[in-house]
Design brief:
An 8-stranded antiparallel β-sheet has the order 2-9-8-7-6-5-4-3, covered by helices on one side. It has 6 domains: about 110 residues, no CATH class; about 200 residues, 3-Layer(aba) Sandwich (Collagenase (Catalytic Domain)), CATH 3.40.390; about 120 residues, Jelly Rolls; about 90 residues, Sandwich (Gamma-B Crystallin, domain 1); about 130 residues, Sandwich (Jelly Rolls); about 70 residues, Sandwich (Immunoglobulin-like). It is mainly beta. It has 7 helices and 53 strands.
Amino acid sequence: MKNKYLYGLGALLLGGGLSSPANAQNQARPSYTVGSSQELVRQLESQVATAQSRRAAPTVTLRVSGNQTLVGKVNHREALDASGEYVVGEIQNVPGSSFLLRIEGNVVQGNIILRQTRQAYQYSADERGTVRVQPIDIDKLLCVDYNQPVGYRNPAPQTDNTASKVSVISLQSFPGARGCIMLDFDGQYVSGTPWNNGNPINAAPAGMTDAAIQEFWELVSEDFRPFNMNVTTDEAVFNSYPKTMRMRCIVTPTNTAAPGAGGVAYLTSFNWNDDTPCWVFMTSPKAGGEAASHEVGHTLGLSHDGRLNPKEEYYDARTSAGNWAPIMGAGYYKPVTHWSRGEYASASQTQDDLAIMASATYNVGYRNDDHSNSISGATALARNGTSVSGSGIIERTSDQDYFTFTCGTGTVNLNLNTVGRHGDLDIVGRLFDGSGAQIGTFDTQGSLSTTLSANLTAGTYYLQIDGTSYGNPVTEGYSDYGSLGTFSISGTAPAGGTVAGVATMYKDCNYTGTAVNLPAGDYNLAALQSRGILNDDISSLTVNSGYQVVVYENDNFGGAALTLTASNSCLVNNPLGTGNWNDKATSLRVQPAASSFSVTLQAEAASVNNGMTAEACTDAGGGQNMGYVDAGDYLVWNGINFPTTGQYLIEYRVASGGSGGTISSDLNAGTIQFGNTPIPGTGGWQNWTTVSRTVTVNAGTYNFGIYAQSGGWNVNWVRISRVGSARAANQGSVAQAAAVLDLYPNPVTDQLQIHSDRSLASSEYQILDAWGKVVAQGSAATGRLNVSGLQPGSYTLRLVIDGQVQPAKRFLK
């Protein structure tokens, strides 16, 4: 914006962000003590006052060692308060020099920069206010000698372009993001900053067309796409962010801040709280955009990517046969540039660019993941006839986005594209069938985008989008580290096919309207919506024999619940006697049906500690509570008979007050623990949450208890049901038939449960990946396996029960 741009002195002009990396690398360099902070203030004020009385340009003495003193010419000065001083200027008779000193009480910040000799000094003070000056690597303080491309000349300014008017085209890459980068194309008046030694800079407009600004913005936006960062050209948007969460990058042919350079920035200045800008002096989209990302990278703590042999400050990869260069090198000459961790040969810098910029230092972080990293939460591709489409962002190196689609028999053709120009994401697509077996990998080496073409039979399929590498990172290529950014999916798939599942949800009664098949698993609202099922939008459903569907009124399996063990044609005034469940379900579980064994525990059968009184339960399905459990109380039902060894579904319905807390359950006073469940504060005693756990229990008689770890609870009802077929374990010596096994949920995210009609007390397991390699093994006695550490894919479970190898079972992660 073409207005006067003054910088407040509340800034951390050379704040902790500068001193931290500098100090880390300069601990061995000698420092020189110049006295106390207040002595330094008095010295500066006295010297400035003496010069003013003589009507001469003010100068100050800057001692940097016991035998070296520099004379600083003051170009900008402000008295902060009675104990503070702020001066900016240049070293007398030393071209290309600058200095800055800021003193507030015992806090001292500042530097001296001698560009021609590549020397720099940094001021600091300890907690007592003792001031020291110490040599520092100039590249840890300022981006210097970042030259323009060989032979580069700025395009001729456009006389009728938007950037010479009151405002430029308004663009935003991520409205509402936590941090903001403004690309300022329309000129700026800058005063009172370290730039130009404290003298003003009246930067001219970039003189770019709207089309050129759009392309420039696209390049920078894609570089910062993984982060919670809004790249904008809009002054009003920029001003809506706090000063510690924004950076202005001025794009101008006025190179006063760094003559001859392509751009310049102070390291770590993003959070200085004073709007110190960074600069770019090239107005073509490719060269200028690369420089803008580079300079903003500096403000977020990044140093240069160079080489040790041959020695160079900026690696431009011109001698490399590949098409890649690091952003923090010089990316002008290559079509693909990435954030880097120094994987190329003879790298001078191995810093983790992504981790530094996403760290808590700058409070920006990554974007939230937009799609599931596993088949179990895959997002349904949008379909219109035979056309299918989808889109997303790969935010992190480990991110893999999954999509699902159904099709009839025929050829599926998909285009997997990154952005049309200046992309960072090199895409690989992987196709899986309905059982999770990988069908193919689709990667066009040498191109960021790729295509998928496959002849498929009717059914359900899963598509994984991932960032990939190219060539050898040491020589001509790159790894998948910085292969991040935007992608889109478009193409055709024959209509038809069905989703593999055991239950089907319908939008309308009588099994009509949009239909979505679901395999066994737990589906909160986000999981339902990713499959095209809207909140409060299920009116009828079918469920296969041997399974049941439990629908819940609230998200994350809370509120009132309804268990359906058979298909239901209309949930309006449904025949189960629990009222109208039409358009009411917000989350649901599809699970193996409970067997005929089921017991509902009554309050009068309970005993308590701490003098609590259990209340009578008059309505197990309604609002009457059966008992109150205060923090530290233990509600116990004695003598519960579990008739056979196997899986049991433990359910109880509770409500809390406003504070919430944690509740747990167990058998025989903790001998068999079912784990803790955090229950949020509901703000009312009749807002119910249903806890559901499937556990393995050996046949026998137990005491079942509910314990309030914290908070207070009303218990509405408790139900225990046998899951699956019931068969007592054979303890004899005769060889047993194979156990009946069921894995749930499948696909799985974190915890894989094993349902068996045989005791798992002495069982062992192995998990094999798709190549037959054992990736996990151990005891399966609990019936619950932690598979959170496995990568997404297809796996085989081998189970040994009582020394007998069971038939292998497959599952998806």
